[in-house]
Design brief:
The chain is an all-alpha fold. It is built from three helices and no strands. 0% of the residues are buried.
Amino acid sequence: MFLVRYGPGMMDGRFAHFGGLLFCLIGIALAVLLIVLVIKTMRHYSHSGTHHSCCGGIESSVNNSGKALEILNERYAKGEINDEEYIKKKAELQK
């Protein structure tokens, strides 16, 4: 009888390069995932800074109250709060 020989692979060569293509796509997906994780980690650490009152002690609480006073002044300037509320909140922050 006739012996028919097909191309490489089990499926007569039609899907011979599919495995290589799939391997490349998986590699690219893993590289993108790794890059995304590195970027997220870097953003997390760059935003965490030293302004947390739990970790910075007295210096950090002074920085936070200064920032709070700035926000209070901005709200007063915009007219979001009245004179009475501004004076009360400012006194609380300066304790």
